[in-house]
Design goal:
- It holds the Pfam family Amidohydro_1.
- This protein has 448 residues and is of the alpha/beta class.
- It has two domains: 134 residues, Urease, subunit C, domain 1; 301 residues, TIM Barrel.
- Helix content is 36%, strand content 19%.
- It is globular, with a radius of gyration of 22 Å.
């Protein structure tokens, strides 16, 4: 019996659920045979990541790691393996534009080790991939660790999403990214401990160049204070205009984009004027901020997951947080929600990012989409924010974020219609990355 006829037989017997059962055998073969044959995916409903429109009964033709064709109707090229998702909604692999994949485990900066973080991170990236996120931008992690993690995934050593990494975020002394905030000053650390702490344009330029040398893909900065960091004020601009200009100009000259953490209006507006590519959080943005962002094409990444994550801890167990953090979390989180819908209604370009802090296990990234829809963003627009828009902000629209010929075969599927129930994206049943199937029938496949 052929793969296609087998799929039809199971479909008649069991209906929609059978489509994923059929893929299990196919997917295991695809995973172990290293793209030995061409593959065609029969998609019942397709959200292709290029527009708000959906398509029915579509064939996606995959050769090696890329899509070579998207055709109406169910076709089967000679010799191709068929993955029958004819009862599913198929969409591009999702993209999380603000994550910290090294988070989780010990949160004690004096007792947690980089070795522990490395093991935790390998678990995190596998969970994120199996949640349907095939690309992730990590904005603020130990440089050597995230670069090694990215390269290990790219070489096939460990499973995980395609990583774009910033390494250490840049922040002034005492700012959101200073790891020594609220610590006994008698502790001594190497220069790497404060690699991301910059004071003055010269210091900032040197840090950007050092991060580039060490393999970072983009630069993350903290233009304002933050919520999870003790002792700083999220409403204040902490990197001055000269520092911001020096960072952006240097990064752009090296072909690197700049993502700016910014809660306060002063920090947001200054960062946008300096030319950053995205504002992360954007809590206290106002109409003028949105106007500036639209004029310059700056993205907003609202990170509602992180706000809710730390808010829940602040309300239920505030003693788990450093001094002042709980109060900030309770104050800021409602404003983050308001900013997300205001930016959306103002027409600001938006991309999805969770800013997972590690209070909850990694792999729950799609909760961000639920929170975005809850504040009033249309489900299809939220989906485009985690596919098309995210790819544009990454600068990789030619590779990811849509199901089109020439793109990587990064493809996920769910039961039901996520444009009607966005929570369905929290239960991805099928995951393909680069033409290789990692999850089928709702279960991760055995690793090679």
């Amino acid at each position: 019996m052929t793969t296609k006829s087998l799929g039809k037989s199971f479909g008649k017997a069991f209906g929609r659920q059978a489509m994923f059962a059929v893929t299990t055998a196919i997917a295991f073969g695809a995973a172990s045979a290293a793209h030995a044959k061409d593959v065609v995916i029969h998609a019942g409903t397709l959200i292709d990541g290029t527009s708000t429109a959906t398509r029915s009964k579509v064939s996606i033709i995959v050769k090696d790691e890329r899509i070579v064709g998207v055709q109406d109707g169910f076709v089967t090229p000679a010799g191709a393996e068929v993955i029958d998702l004819s009862g599913a909604t198929v969409l591009p692999g999702m993209i999380d534009m603000h994550n910290h994949v090294t988070g989780g485990g010990s949160r004690d900066r004096l007792r947690g080790t980089v070795e522990q973080a490395a093991y935790q991170s390998s678990w995190n990236v596998n969970a994120i991939l199996n949640a349907g996120f095939t690309s992730v931008r990590d904005v603020g992690g130990a440089t050597e660790l995230v670069v090694a993690l990215r390269d290990s995934i790219n070489s096939g050593l460990i499973p995980g999403p395609r990583l774009t990494v910033s390494g250490n975020g840049l922040s002034p002394t005492g700012g959101h990214g200073d790891p020594t905030n609220h610590m006994d000053p008698r502790w001594q650390r190497t220069n790497d401990w404060k690699l991301g702490v910059v004071d003055g344009p010269v210091s900032a330029i040197r840090a950007v160049r050092e991060l580039h040398k060490r393999g970072a893909n983009l630069i993350k900065i903290a233009a304002s204070g933050g919520v999870a960091s003790p002792g700083d004020d999220p409403a204040l601009q902490l990197l001055n205009d000269e520092e911001l200009k020096a960072i952006v100009e240097t990064a752009h000259s090296l072909g690197m984009k700049v993502a700016s953490h910014a809660h306060g209006k002063a920090g947001i507006d200054a960062a946008v004027k300096a030319g950053v590519d995205s504002i992360e959080h954007g809590t206290y943005a106002d109409a003028e901020s949105y106007r500036l962002m639209k004029e310059r094409g700056t993205y907003m990444v609202p990170t509602l997951f992180a706000g809710q994550e730390i808010y829940d801890v602040a309300v239920s167990t505030p003693d788990k947080l450093p001094p002042t953090v709980a109060d900030k979390a309770i104050s800021v989180t409602p404003k983050m929600r308001k900013n997300a819908i205001n930016a959306y209604r103002a027409g600001v370009k938006m991309a999805m990012g969770t800013d997972q802090l590690g209070w909850r296990p990694h792999g729950e990234n799609a909760r961000e989409l639920e929170y975005m829809v809850a504040v009033g963003i249309k489900p299809i627009d939220a989906i485009l924010m985690t596919t098309r828009n995210a790819a544009d902000l990454l600068g990789k629209s030619g590779d990811v974020g849509s199901i089109q010929a020439g793109r990587f075969a990064d493809i996920v599927a769910v039961d039901g219609d996520p444009t009607q129930d966005i929570k369905l994206l929290q239960s991805v049943r099928f995951v393909m990355k680069g033409g290789k199937v990692y999850k089928a029938d709702g279960k991760p496949l055995p690793l090679d």
